[in-house]
Amino acid sequence: MSTTSHIPPQAPPDQGAVRVGHDDLTAFAAGVFAHRGLAPDRAAEAARALCHGDLAGPRSHGLANLTRLYLPLLDEGRADPAAEPRTVTDLGAAVLLDARRALGLWVASEAMDRAVERAGRHGVGLVSVRGATHLGCAGYHALRAVEHGMVGLVASNCGRQRIARPPGGAVTMLGTNPLSVAAPAGQHPPFLLDMSTTAAPTGRIRQAAREGHTLPEGLLCDDLGAPVTDPDAFDAGRAHLMWLGGREGRYKGFGLGLMVEVLAALVPGAGLGPHPDALTGDGGPSGRDDDIGFLVAAVAPDALREGAGEDAEELFGALLACPPTDRAEPVRYPGWHEYHRAGERRRGGVPLEAPLYAELAELAERTGLRVPPVQGAPR
Ligand SMILES: NC(=O)c1ccc[n+]([C@@H]2O[C@H](COP(=O)([O-])OP(=O)(O)OC[C@H]3O[C@@H](n4cnc5c(N)ncnc54)[C@H](O)[C@@H]3O)[C@@H](O)[C@H]2O)c1
Fold it and tell me: What is the pLDDT of residues 37-60, one digit of tens each?
């Protein structure tokens, strides 16, 4: 049973974390991916996507997943480091891509770059992807569109991995199906909505379990729907993930999860969570996150009309100027904190908890790479 205090979303690491330079960290992660056979440019892109979690905030989907998720995927042959994605259909504004087991961290960014290029020509670009593996933080890939003044949309199902039960259902059917939208906001930080469609991703539950925190109510519940705050109960099969919207609004979260399943997986023909195979499940998580599907889209407002940039600046500026009910907590929109946190960490280093840093040091020893140095320590 875990103890100690609740953690808010995107909480900073505990006291005692070390700080590591962002460039050193991404160079190290790129070295690890290259050691596993990725071409250097792909390894570097995958590393930037991975480290985004630690840089900007959703650290449940950052470097902690290197040894837990991505290296096992590569070592078991479920991700192919040399995969050459294949274009199945190309209609100009819409493309269907078979990722052929490429690392999702890299291929989702490739897909967004292609969507941006098509949106530059057609006003909208859609790259529908199947045969992919885990993409990490959906928002990292969505943000690439913002660099081109466009709105980016990224959603992913979890292949055939089933983690969440439909409301009233006794077996798991869907993944945590992340959804992200990023948009330019003029001189303000970009809007970046980046979230699981369940109340929390499994990464956040397991992170709390590793760190010995209890969870706030509203993320897990037992078979009867009663709240569960012990994160260990999830992997012990005594608790299930709740949908966004809580008990009363759960059909909204469930509906969003299904929306992602349709757009990201049904459209490209990727592995589906809801499938007759799911019916034999024992009520807990089942299936594997192979053959994941993505929806990757870019929309170019400037291609459709003039003045969208000015309007965006006004929209997000008005939100920031909204009078707060509590002066200690000014009104912010999704992406604001991530932008400022990333800026601060680029300058002052990325905090990593001591156990995670020790894990990286051990990995460095095994791969013959140099562990990224702790800032302030002798090099
Ligand atoms: N690849 C996968 O299969 C998968 C599955 C699930 C989640 N994920 C990733 O996990 C990460 C974390 O997801 P999550 O659901 O825990 O996100 P979260 O709950 O930490 O945040 C969700 C959204 O709320 C916003 N937000 C939170 N607190 C805020 C505040 N105080 N002010 C303004 N905005 C605020 C954030 O900016 C974010 O857009 C995401 O990057 C997501 O893409 C990936």
Answer: 999 999 999 999 999 999 999 889
